[in-house]
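Table S5 (text form). Sequence records supplied for joint modeling of the two-component complex.
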Amino acid sequence: MKLLYFAWVRERIGRAEEHLDVPSEVTTVADLIGWLTARGPEYAHAFAQPAVIRCAIDQMHVPQTAALGGAREVAFFPPVTGG
Amino acid sequence: MAVRVQPEGFDVGAEIKALTAGRDDVGAIVTFTGTVRGESGGRALRSMALEHYPGMTERELERVEAEALARWPLAASLIVHRIGELLPGDDIVLVVTASAHRQAAFEAAAFLMDYLKTRAPFWKKETGVDGSGGWVDARETDTAAAARWQGGAGV
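The corresponding structure-token record, covering 238 residues in total, follows.
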């Protein structure tokens, strides 16, 4: 699975993207956040307040309850501040 | 109907001309330009960096534009959003809506900005003149502004 990080999520994790083999028991966005958080302190820092984190699956906004299904690309980012 | 994400600036007059060239069904054109303020929370700003999600940002802007088109009888519309390093006074975003009558053009322009601010994946990072920096927090007032269009407001 391709994972993308933006803004301060990217800065805290220390990379903009990576490819990870996600175990099959990780079925939702919330599961993925929990699994990433356990990978290391940089992830724990990025996801310290999970309620703030926004997610997109294959470039569509989704809630954290969304199923990962056959997602190719999952992105994590703070609330958007364009315009 | 068009969206563009670009580091370059834009010329509002030239964009209006290009959007409406050769048309005689347009009776009202509304433009909104967002620019970089020189201060933020009482702090003088040196610059502002705009990050985006290549691919998704363009698609999300297209989805927002398609939703405006479904709600209002627009003859034409355009969204241009800049990315990269910007300075106080620089333009950030341009929205143009053209319709036969002004109400649709005014409302659709406000809708596009409200939706863009809460849905299009852009993130601003400020750098102060003192070198301090920080990501801009999302504003509750922007979420409230977007929420007022829920329930099918429009013509």
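Note: The beta strands of chain A are 2-5, 17-19, 54-57, 60-62, 73-77.
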